[in-house]
Amino acid sequence: MGHTVRRALRHGGSAALLAAALLMGTTACGTPDEHRPLTPDEAQRLALARLSVYERGPASVRLRVPAADTDVGVDAVVDYAAHRALGSYRALGREGRVAWDAAGVSVAPGHGHPGGRGAATRWSTRAYTRDPVDRALRLVLALGSDRPENAQLLAQSGPRWLGERRLRGHTYTLFAGPRPAPHGPGRTAPSEPPVSPVTYWIDETGALGRVEAVLTSGADPVTVDFTGRRSPLPPGPWPAPAGPARP
């Protein structure tokens, strides 16, 4: 990204919301000989992963976006029911607060916990760009859903078993998500479609521990870690909820 990191949280644009659209045309992690189709039980676990995130309440996440000159880090609370997130970011030696929802991104100067005393209120709001940082923020919002996927249809769209890894004292199964569908009129899927650029780390209880996503071909993956903590969404740049009507 070069110097775009400094600008990534400040300038406007637009991008697709769904993870599949965000990641279309990129390449996958892993090596082909590690992959195999999912069993029915594994497809069910993957189909319930985003619902599990949604049902566990506001989630604490840690986002890392690699770049040529620095990594952008974001620690945030995501309320999937409200489709909002708020936290702090670090990039190029600078810190600040960042909030985002379906409409766009808001940034404020300052540091420390966003819900703490003296939280910044001078928010600057803009539309999303196609910068990898913005695409990563939108990906975070897309990782929770109030309904499960259809496991049978999901299994037909090419997810793959990638193996098992240990993370924070837990064992996770790694699944490559559904393959992006071909775009455009007359486009057909290749005989050997690429593996999805999104990898889900799911434990034996169905909890999602990490998501890795390759946003740009040849680049290191963006990492979203679900830390397991549940926290209320701190106050942010959004209008306060209306109080009860007076009699």
Structure described in brief:
The chain is of the alpha+beta class. 16% of the residues lie in helices and 31% in strands.
Notable characteristics:
twelve-stranded antiparallel β-sheet, 247 residues, disordered N terminus, outer membrane lipoprotein receptor (LolB), chain A, alpha+beta, 31% strand
General description of the model:
The chain is an alpha+beta fold. It has a domain of 159 residues: Clam (outer membrane lipoprotein receptor (LolB), chain A). Helices cover 16% and strands 31% of the residues. The chain contains five helices and twelve strands. A twelve-stranded antiparallel sheet has the order 1-8-9-10-11-12-2-3-4-5-6-7, covered by helices on one side. β10 and β11 form a beta hairpin. The N terminus is likely disordered.
Low-confidence stretches: 1-6, 11-32, 114-119, 187-192
Give the spatial strand order of the biggest sheet.
Answer: 1-8-9-10-11-12-2-3-4-5-6-7
Tell me what portion of residues adopts beta-strand conformation.
Answer: 25-35%
Secondary structure tally: strands: 12
Determine Rg (CA atoms, Å): 19 Å
Question: At the first level of CATH, what is the class of the domain at 16-77 and 132-228?
Answer: Mainly Beta
- The H/E string reads HHEHEEEEEEHHEEEEE
Largest sheet: 12 strands, antiparallel
Helix percentage range: 10-25%
Structure class: alpha+beta
* C-alpha termini separation: 55 Å
C-alpha geometry = globular
Q: Can you tell me the CATH architecture of the domain at 16-77 and 132-228? A: Clam
Query: At the third CATH level, what is the topology name of the domain at 16-77 and 132-228?
Result: outer membrane lipoprotein receptor (LolB), chain A
How many helical elements?
5
* Mean pLDDT metric: 80
Organism: Streptomyces crystallinus
Region (Disordered): 222-247
Protein name: Lipoprotein
Keywords: Signal
